[in-house]
Amino acid sequence: MSIQTWTFVIVGVTFALYLGIAWWSRVRDTKGFYVAGRGVPAAANGMATAADWMSAASFISMAGLISMMGYAGGVYLMGWTGGYVLLALLLAPYLRKFGHYTVPDFVGDRFESKVARVVAVLCALFISFTYVAGQMRGVGIVFSRFLEVDIDVGVVIGMAIVFVYATLGGMKGITWTQVVQYWVLITAFLVPAIAISIRLTGEPVPQVGLGSELRDSGVALLAKLDAVQRDLGFAPYTEPFTGQWDQLNVFCTALALMLGTAGLPHVIVRFYTVRTVAAARWSGFWALLFISLLYLTAPATAAFARYYMIESLDGRTANELPAWFHSWERTGLIAWLDDGDGIVEYRGGALAEDTELFRSGTMPAADFAAIRLEHQRWLDTVGDEGRDGRAVLRAAKLAGPDPDIIVLATPEMAGLAAWIIALVAAGGLAAALSTASGLLLVISSSVAHDLYYHLIDPRASEAQRLLVGRVVIGLAVIVAGLFGIFPPGFVSEVVAFAFGLAASSFFPALLLGIFSRRVGAVPAIAGMIAGIGFTATYIVGVKSGAFDRWCFGIGPQGIGVVGMLVNLTVTLALTPLCAPPSARARDMVESIREPEGAGPAVAIDVTPEAAD
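Above: the chain's sequence. Below: its structure in C-alpha cell form.
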C-alpha cells in the first residue's frame, strides 16, 4: 500500500479509538469534567501527563531543532525535563492537598482576592492560547504532508476531532485518551529511530548508535557530521555555544523552560486528578520515566536526520533530488531557489548565518524576509561570489528546511517502509492533539469555573456549568485553529514563548503562595502583572523587530527567567508595605504543608459567596 493509504488506515484507526474512549468516558458532572473524578491511578496519570506534556513541540519540532542547531538544541531537552523535578518536589503535592480544580482556584483562594483570580485566569488564557497555537500548527503540518491537503484544512480537521472528545468526556475522557495517545506517539517515535540506527550503525539502541561508527565508512557518526559541517561552512555539529547560543542564552533558556514547566496550568491540573498526595508524587515519577523514553532518543533521531538530509541533498541536480524532497516541497516548508546552475549546494555562508539567527528567534521574520529578497536579487546580478569575498549560500537557495518537518521526513529520507512513515504521522497527531485537548480544558475551566461560577453566577447548577464549559471549549477550538492557520512562529519557538510566560507569572505566585505565610494579595497581583507584562513585551518587541535584544543579549526563549525575577522582586518588595493575609489564609498555608497523614487540611470555605 502507498504511504497515503497506510496513513488513512492508521490515523483512521487511532481517531476511531480516541472518539470511542470519549464516548465511553463521557461525564455529567463538573468533578468528572474538570478533574476526572479524582480517581486516576498514578501510573495511568503519569502516561496521560507524559502525553499531555509531549506536545507537537516535543515530537515534531524538538529533534528538528537539535538537528538544525546541533549542540545548542540540547537546551530544550534540559529545560523540558528538569522542570518536572521542580514540579514534583515544590508544587504538585501541595496543590493536590489543597484540592479544587484549577491554578486560578488556588491563586484566588490563597490570596483571598477576586482580582487575583481574574489576573490568574487571564495569565492562564494567555499562556494556553500561545501554547495551543503550536499544537494546531503541528496538526496542520502532518495532515498537509501525509493526507496531501492544505495546512489550513489539516488544522480544521484537527479542530473537529479535539472538539468532539474534549467536550464529551472532559478531563475524564481526555485522560484515558491521552493514555492511548502516549503509546501511539512513543511507538511512532521509537520504531523509526531503532530502524534507522540499525541501518546506519548496526546498533538497535539509538542512543548507542549515536556514538557508534557508520557501517558504510567505519567513521563515527558524530565525527562524520562535524567534518561535513565544517566542509560546508557551518559550525561543527557538536561544538558548544556557537553564534547567538552563548552560555548565557543556553542557561537562561534552559532555566526558563524548567520554571515554565513548573508553572504550566495544563500540566499542574493533571495532579488534581489522582486520589492522594502520595499519588501526585508518584505521578511525577511515572511521567518523567515515560517522557525520558522519547527525550533520550531525540538526540539520536536528530543526528540521523542531519546526516540523511545533507547526504541526500548536497551536490544534487534538479533531476536528482530525492522523492522525499518533492513530497515536502508541496507543503511549502522546504524549497530550492535555483541561481541558474541547477545544483543544490547546502553550504554555510552569509545567508546561512542569517538563517540560523532567524530560526533561533534572534532575527525578526520581517528582517529575514527582506534579507532573503535582497540575496536573491544579488544572485541575479553578481552570481555566486559575494562582493565582500564570503561564499554565498548557493543553496540556501535551499530555503529551509523548516525544523518542524525533520522528524516527519526522516523515515522517508532513510527509505523506511510506508507503514512506519504513516505510523510517524499518527504519532505526530497524537502528540499535538493530546496537548491541545489539555490546554482547551484549562481554557474552559478558567472561564466556566473561575469566572462564570465564582464571579458571575455562583448559584449556577451543575448542568449550567457543564454547558458553559463545553461552549467555551467550542469557542476556544475556533481561536486555537486561527492561531494554527496564522502562527506567530514555528512550533517549538511558539511553545518556548508559552513557557517563558508561565515562568514569569505563575511560578513565583505558586511558590510564594505555598511557602510564604506573609505574601498577600496586592504583592502577588502586582508581581504576576509585572512578570508576564515584561516577558510578553520583550518577546513581541524582539520578534517584531521593534527593538533589539537589549537585556544582556538574552533571546526571547530565555527572557522568562528575567520576567520571573521581575515578578519575585516586585512581590517581595511590596510585601512589607502591604497588609498580611488573614489568619484563615495563613492557616491554609500551614495546612497544605503538613505531611500527608499528619492531619486533614484546614476546612476552607471556597464557595464564590465566601470570596471577598
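DSSP finds 24 helices and no strands in the chain.
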